[in-house]
Amino acid sequence: MTTPPDAAARRAARPVICYPTETLPTPDMALYARARTDLRKIGETLVPPRDARAFRVPAGHFFRIGCVDGPQVGDLNLWNAHDLSERFFSGKTRALHGTHLGMGHRMWSTFPHLRPMATLTHDSLEWYGFDDDGAGVHDVIGTRCDPYTNALLSGGQYHHCCHSNLIRALAAETGQSLAEAEPHIHDVLNVFMCTGFTRDTHQYFMKASPVRPGDYLEFFAEIDLIGALSACPGGDCGAQHSSDAATCHPLLVEVFAPAPGALDGWMAPQPNRYDRTHGS
Which of 3, 70, 229, 259 gives 20 to 30 Å between its CA and that of 266? Predict the structure, then answer.
């Protein structure tokens, strides 16, 4: 392969942000901050190690994913509680907010809706930032560990990958069969997972999560939600996943109601305004 004489000039082209967010609707974080000062817990779900559980959150409520025992990564799916075809859109969320999510970022839904499903309102790991390896926490890069890739790479049959865990959890919540539930499982928010890309080969890497008991990630539900959370078989993902070798711990999901009147003026986001004529 011959390198063109203007290769250096081509490589020096100025990077342009694909989706400038200056006009992106922003959440009223001051309103959410006031509302979260007086919350009443209305439910909780303990997610066992190497398994998943589903939970529901009404619009206008908060939910937290907490580390309660030892360092543990979780894979999170979200759906519109009234329409499973509207679900978390990891790729568009990444395009809008970047590879890792933090406070004030939102989990956006799939087309044709493309609206906020949940807003991140508290992150006890905000201090971590990005480390010397370029890694951060709470990524929207990885797709979720799954038995198909595991079989492709190892030839083995493993049934407690996050993909399978989430299928079982959604099926149990909705009464669907496993075959009916599987198409609804989608790319995740990797809660507490510490990840990045290697500088030499640009491969997706993971390292031991900095999460410790007492840490939690909190969200505000912008619409009525069904969530499913898998306590990843990789544990803190400091060594491997898709096996029973790693030490794993439970995760706790807690749902909170704000005090009456705390969200006066707030309205659930409407579906995207595009007219869907597609040039016809």
Answer: 229
